[in-house]
Amino acid sequence: MGQIIGFIVGVVIAAVVLLIVSRLNLGLSVAGFSSAVIGAIVISLVSSAILWLLGSLGIQVGGGSLFSIIVWLIVSAVILLIAGKLLPGMTVQGFTGGIIAAIAMAVIYWLLSLILGPLVSPLPPAP
């Protein structure tokens, strides 16, 4: 039961973060809260699949090195681009827009985690 509540809270927080980044016009736009909720779920699923694939290829995302930060940014941008292609209510303005949106989402999650404690992001864990 706790995992289900944690998942729901994580999706709601991710949807709010998507809305915030969308309103900042940083390369990502979301039509509304329902699109943001669906977007958070799709991003989470695509992220899990991509991280599993990278892990099976021996590529680890995380670790703190410059290489892992670059890999994290590329993976996050690709995840946002895929989610933008899958969802009619979400658009990502190219690869650069995906990277900028991924950085903005990471910063917003970091700020929220300072206030609320550890949070679960739909994007890959930051290095």
Task: Describe this structure as you would to a colleague.
The structure is a single chain. The chain is mainly α. The chain has one domain. Helix content is 71%, strand content 5%. It is built from 4 helices and 2 strands, in the order αβααβα. It has a two-stranded antiparallel sheet. The chain is globular. The model has no long low-confidence stretch (mean pLDDT 82).
Head-to-tail CA distance between termini: 30 Å
The number of strands is 2
Described by strand count, sense and barrel closure, the largest sheet is:
2 strands, antiparallel
The assigned structural class equals: mainly alpha
| Low-pLDDT segments, ≥5 res | none
Broad shape: globular
Radius of gyration, Cα only, in angstroms? 14 Å
Order of helix and strand elements from N to C terminus: HEHHEH
> Numbering strands along the chain, what is their spatial order in the largest sheet?
1-2
* Contiguous helical run count: 4
Domain tally: 1
Mean pLDDT: 82
Beta-strand content estimate: under 5%
Please give the share of residues in helix.
Answer: over 70%
